[in-house]
Amino acid sequence: MNGLIRVLVMAGSRPGPDPLLSGSGVATKALLPIAGRPMLAHVVAALRAASEVGPITILAQRSAELAAHPALAGFADLHFADSGQGISASLAAALPEGDAPVLVTTADNVLLTPAMIAEFLAGAEDSDVAVAMVEKRVLLAHYPESKRTWLKFRGGWWSGANLFRLRGRRVLPLLDFWGRIERDRKRGMKIVAAFGPALLLAVVLRLITIQQGVARAGLRFGLKAKIVPMTEPEACIDADKPADVELIESILAARP
């Protein structure tokens, strides 16, 4: 596995009822069937087909239930671990020793492909923290019906693509900070405000691009942080709502 990147897949459940699971007979979102197999199986298959990927660890509150599912049998170098309370704490506990990079994604990133993984990792080189994003015009040119959460910066509006590259344990201070604000993860301006009034003002007045904003935020923790713009619009379409699942299934049906 020398030279291959370790992967952490966040496959846990958030507190409260999930509208996707209502009437499905499935207890956890990662096992919700999409196009005939659990969403987690789609993600693992894409990761295993990527030439850059090494060991894969699935993090979930009920990891044994996921490990026992037949759709996940047969994948090489696939591991399961129980997650903690919250995304940041779970990631911090799962990071390997040292500063080797780790690729992080989520179980609902169903449209993930090896090409997306390659594009992201190539763009994430030489960073401590890298975040995949899709610009609004890229998405709406192909899927105008898709509803996403947008971060508004000079030069464009952006939505997250559920791909992250972290430079090992040197990012622990950032994860600790994120643990205090992750409840506001869908409220872009609250997240920006947490990094201080100067950055908030610059974003509100559209004085900086998202690349500049993320770089400034990283410097607060002594980290080189960057955005990796993704060229495939599907990169930011994850399975959050019933409408998302319908769109994802239509996209999967059209793929070769």
From TrEMBL:
GO molecular function, one term: nucleotidyltransferase activity
The keyword Phosphoprotein appears for this protein: no
SUPFAM superfamilies, per database record: Nucleotide-diphospho-sugar transferases (SSF53448)
Domain MobA-like NTP transferase: 28-138
Keywords linked to the UniProt accession: Magnesium, Membrane, Transferase, Transmembrane, Transmembrane helix
Keyword ATP-binding listed: no
Domain of life: Bacteria
Chain ranges passing through the membrane: 191-209
Protein name in UniProt: MobA-like NTP transferase domain-containing protein
